């Protein structure tokens, strides 16, 4: 029903407007008695074989919602009803910021892709914390970044502010230095500044009675040499894992009219490259750390390929928008059969 009726209607309208409309609709529908139970019965797949133990956490299934969809932690309880095993909120910054000027979100329907240049638009970390206090047992990842006007030499302060504010309300952290939509942010992926940043967060982490897992989200555009640096950085800083990958700035093989728009590209064009990065990291590190695979998962086969390449968990974003919540159910059912 989603692909035949709902998606064609939604795709007639501006993608950012549709996003906010959909959020309002989901929130409204879940206030109606019994609707959330009906949604759970339609899409949730419960089976102990789907459970995954990773960095001290128990994921009820290995399929998560990637950061960027529920930036401000406004809908994580309702979205979890669709069958996700975990929800990643953010990217959050210390101060609220509007992000880049509109129009900043583009569908590439012919390529089953999206280009976004949102620019970490969010209401600020403290605003999100207010809603996270209403969490009804959803496993939450907190994706954190820096404000646009914060120079890179002071970036560590921004990440630590977010880390401290979210610590009691998320289950794991994701350090986002790989978005192409904040000026100079990707410079923080260089070995020295990235090592220093992660060490600062680990010092902050060690100050708590029970530390929280810290993961690093990387770009798909890194060279093999840079990926080897990432492996070294994980070993040196002792962070808990990698999320591979964020959006790409490359535009190879696109046919859609909007292909020249600036921003990060996600969706099917990213499928192969994100899997290549996962496989490279898993093989070259001898599977020394967990990997969450994300990028171009539109089918059950895409999901299985990511897991076979070395991903321990996977996340959906653009595939969820194009294929609908049935994709989550189909992947979980396929994993049970395996």
From TrEMBL:
Pathway: Pyrimidine metabolism; UMP biosynthesis via de novo pathway; orotate from (S)-dihydroorotate (quinone route): step 1/1. Coiled coil: none annotated. Its EC number is 1.3.5.2. GO terms for biological process: 'de novo' pyrimidine nucleobase biosynthetic process; 'de novo' UMP biosynthetic process. Keywords: Cell membrane, Flavoprotein, FMN, Membrane, Oxidoreductase, Pyrimidine biosynthesis. GO terms for molecular function: dihydroorotate dehydrogenase (quinone) activity. FMN binds at residues 67-71, 91, 143, 176, 217, 245, 267, 296, 317-318. It catalyses: (S)-dihydroorotate + a quinone = orotate + a quinol. GO terms for cellular component: cytoplasm; plasma membrane. The active site is at 179 (nucleophile). Its cofactor is FMN. It is found in: Cell membrane; Membrane. CDD domains: DHOD_2_like. It is a peripheral membrane protein. Substrate binds at residues 71, 116-120, 176, 181, 246-247. HAMAP family: DHO_dh_type2. Monomer. Catalyzes the conversion of dihydroorotate to orotate with quinone as electron acceptor. This is Dihydroorotate dehydrogenase (quinone). It comes from Confluentibacter flavum.
């Amino acid at each position: 029903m989603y692909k035949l009726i709902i998606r064609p209607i939604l795709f007639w309208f501006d993608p950012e407007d549709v996003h906010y409309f959909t959020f309002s609709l989901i929130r409204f529908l879940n206030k109606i008695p019994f609707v959330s139970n009906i949604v759970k019965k339609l899409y949730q797949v419960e089976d102990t074989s789907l459970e995954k133990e990773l960095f001290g956490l128990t994921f009820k299934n290995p399929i998560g919602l990637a950061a960027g969809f529920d930036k401000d932690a406004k809908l994580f309880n309702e979205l979890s009803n669709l069958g996700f095993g975990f929800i990643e909120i953010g990217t959050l910054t210390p101060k609220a910021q509007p992000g880049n000027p509109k129009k900043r979100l583009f569908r590439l329907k012919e390529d089953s892709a999206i280009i976004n240049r949102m620019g970490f638009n969010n209401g600020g970390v403290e605003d999100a914390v207010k809603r996270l206090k209403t969490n009804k047992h959803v496993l939450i990842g907190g994706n954190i970044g820096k404000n646009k006007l914060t120079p890179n030499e002071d970036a560590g302060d921004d990440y630590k502010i977010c880390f401290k504010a979210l610590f009691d309300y998320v289950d794991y952290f994701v350090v986002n230095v790989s978005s192409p939509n904040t000026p100079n942010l990707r410079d923080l992926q260089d070995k020295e500044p990235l090592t220093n940043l992660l060490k600062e967060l680990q010092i902050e982490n060690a100050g708590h009675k029970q530390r929280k897992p810290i993961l690093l989200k990387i770009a798909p555009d890194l060279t093999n040499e840079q990926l080897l640096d990432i492996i070294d950085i994980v070993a040196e800083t002792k962070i808990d894992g990698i999320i591979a990958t964020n959006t790409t700035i490359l535009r190879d093989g696109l046919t859609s009219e909007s292909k020249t728009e600036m921003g990060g590209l996600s969706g099917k064009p990213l499928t192969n490259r994100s899997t290549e990065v996962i496989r490279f990291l898993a093989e070259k590190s001898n599977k020394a750390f967990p990997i969450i695979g994300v990028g171009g998962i539109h089918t059950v086969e895409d999901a299985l390929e990511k897991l076979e390449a070395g991903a321990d968990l996977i996340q959906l974003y653009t595939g969820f928008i194009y294929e609908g919540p049935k994709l989550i159910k189909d992947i979980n059912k396929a994993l049970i059969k395996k």
